[in-house]
């Protein structure tokens, strides 16, 4: 099922995240975005174009990485790439055990500021050692 809501409601947004199987974010460019991270917290698997922060925050399922995958991604900004990735996601949807595994992976992702701060600290310390 597909639904459209014109406008914004935080309450409705969270119900949509929580009640969805997939979250589509096919951005042409995306410095980061938060939608895919909110979706992951709810176990809703993001389908994203692998660009910018979307590539950094979603580990795309490739058929062999079910222990770490947290969503689906495509590289090229074109209709065939997006559609093929949606078909891949639908195939996973039909395999309930696999879909649940990926959803659990997504819910375990730590996008907290404390985790980000550790990564920044490691990055800065690396620059200082050069």
Walk me through this protein's architecture.
By secondary structure, the chain is mainly alpha-helical. The chain has six helices and three strands. Strands 1-2-3 form a three-stranded parallel beta sheet, sandwiched between helices. Helix 3 links the parallel strand 2 and strand 3. The model has no long low-confidence stretch (mean pLDDT 93).
How would the blueprint of this fold be written?
Layout: H1 10-19, E1 22-25, H2 35-41, E2 45-49, H3 52-57, E3 72-74, H4 79-94, H5 96-108, H6 113-129
Parallel strand pairs: 1-2, 2-3
Brief synopsis:
It contains six helices and three strands; from the N terminus they run αβαβαβααα. It is mainly alpha-helical and about 130 residues long.
- How much helical structure, as a percent, in the residues? 40-55%
- Sketch the major β-sheet: 3 strands, parallel
Report the mean per-residue pLDDT as an integer: 93
Q: Helix/strand/pairing class, anyone? A: mainly alpha
What sort of overall outline do the alpha carbons produce when their principal axes are compared? globular
Tell me the distance between the termini.
Answer: 53 Å
| Contiguous uncertain segments of 5+ residues | none
The number of helical elements comes to 6
Helix and strand succession? HEHEHEHHH
- As laid out across the biggest beta sheet, the strand order is 1-2-3
Strand residue content:
5-15%
């Amino acid at each position: 099922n597909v639904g459209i809501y014109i406008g914004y409601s935080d309450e409705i947004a969270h119900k949509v995240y929580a009640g969805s199987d997939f979250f589509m974010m096919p951005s042409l460019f995306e410095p980061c975005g938060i939608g895919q991270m909110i979706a992951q917290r709810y176990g809703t698997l993001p389908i994203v174009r692998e660009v910018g922060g979307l590539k950094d925050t979603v580990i795309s399922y490739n058929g062999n990485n079910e222990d770490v995958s947290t969503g689906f991604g495509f590289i090229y900004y074109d209709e065939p790439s997006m559609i093929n990735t949606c078909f891949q996601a639908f195939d996973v949807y039909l395999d309930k055990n696999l879909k649940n595994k990926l959803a659990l992976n997504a819910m375990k992702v730590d996008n907290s500021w404390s985790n980000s701060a550790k990564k920044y600290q490691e990055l800065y310390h690396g620059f200082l050692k050069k």
